[in-house]
Design a protein that fits this description.
The protein has a single domain, classed as TIM Barrel, CATH 3.20.20. An 8-stranded parallel sheet has the order 6-5-4-3-10-9-8-7. Helix content is 31%, strand content 14%. α9 links the parallel β9 and β10. α3 crosses α5 and α6 packs parallel to α7. It is α/β, with parallel strands linked by helices. The chain binds zinc ion (ZN). The site of zinc ion has 8 residues, from α11.
Length: 338
């Protein structure tokens, strides 16, 4: 708990490993990151936007001055997060009017001999959680994975990005692999380096894994030592988000990393976390609609269909995703304030 409580501290704010701070403040000496080496690279800091101030004068509008918005008064991000609707039914990629971007597992797509161009943007899940739970290791080689991603990018198209072959850190997965959080993190970094070496141009993203919030900060340091500045990555996957009871430490971690310029995708984010985290994530995905339907006593979509439940119902999935989109960022408060 002591580690988590440090996330609530307002002053001084702990820094990411590659963030330079002014000589006026020395937060490193007072935080749990004091063991980290000083870095020379500058972290991309979000600059306060300038908003023109106008006033009415003699019936005409003049731009008179600009006023800097300080971080303290900055409102959470204005642009809505992209929500990728997770589905086991990969053929939704080829529906005529796909209402939401899709999140599809490589394990599902491998069943298709023939592929064709998709009408919707989508992202590829590597299927790591299932593979590690089944075998306790990755049996799909990086060479094979890169070849699959290349095929999907060529033949389906509209691929926003693909997850790496990362190593999740849920206790159940650790029990299956017999490895530690640190080992999973290092294997995840190694895999990303391998995949990018095999194909530098494919949109394969780096992913952060961990269990405690500090684990994620240490993982950032591992990437940094490997020469990868995550603040420059177009998307950084945030793994091991679901399957935990207390989400508050996760909310605070996401807020801290957002403040420091990480553009994050939350893998499998819980629905009730998005009113808050939606302000700070670039994107997220969830397949929870299907489980909800499976546990329900009957259909949920309000329409008639043969299936007794809506666990594969496109109508229900769309209704559920619409509700997600309506609630993104509605909390409108900073996680540290509660
Ligand atoms: Zn239905």
């Amino acid at each position: 708990m002591a580690k988590q409580s440090s996330l609530h501290q307002q002053q001084p704010r702990p820094l990411l490993p590659n963030q330079r701070h002014s000589t006026r403040h020395h937060p490193r000496s007072q935080t749990n990151l004091q063991h980290l080496p000083r870095q020379t690279t500058m972290l991309r800091i979000r600059h306060p936007t300038r908003r023109p101030i106008t006033r009415r004068h003699m019936g005409r509008t003049h731009r008179t001055r600009t006023k800097k918005r300080t971080p303290k008064t900055r409102h959470p991000r204005q642009k809505l997060m992209i929500f990728y609707l997770g589905t086991d039914d990969a053929y939704w990629l080829w529906d005529n009017t796909p209402p939401h971007p899709l999140f599809i597992s490589r394990r599902r797509l491998e069943r298709y001999k023939n592929l064709k161009p998709s009408n919707t943007r989508w992202a590829l899940d590597s299927g790591g959680f299932t593979e590690l739970n089944m075998y306790g290791e990755w049996r799909t080689s990086p060479h094979k994975y890169v070849a699959l991603v290349q095929r999907y990018a060529n033949e389906i198209g509209n691929l926003d990005w693909a997850a790496p072959q990362d190593w999740m850190c849920e206790p159940s997965v650790l029990a299956k692999t017999g490895k530690t959080v640190t080992e999973h993190q290092q294997l995840t970094v190694n895999n990303y380096l391998t995949l990018k070496t095999l194909s530098p141009t494919l949109p394969i993203i780096p992913a952060l894994q961990g269990w405690q919030p500090d684990d994620y900060l240490r993982h950032i340091e591992m990437y940094d030592k490997a020469g990868i500045d995550l603040t420059k990555a177009p998307t950084v996957g945030m793994g091991t988000f679901c399957r935990r009871a207390n989400l508050k430490p996760v909310h605070n971690l996401v807020y801290r990393l957002w403040e420091n310029g990480l553009k994050m995708h939350g893998f499998g984010v819980k629905q009730d976390g998005l009113p808050i985290m939606g302000n700070y994530l670039q994107s997220a995905d969830s397949l929870a609609w299907s489980l909800t339907a499976r546990l329900a006593p009957g259909p949920l979509c309000g329409t008639q269909h043969r299936a007794k439940k809506c666990s594969h119902c496109r109508t229900w999935a769309t209704q559920w995703a619409n509700n997600i989109n309506n609630n993104i960022g509605t909390a409108g408060i900073q996680p540290e304030l509660f």
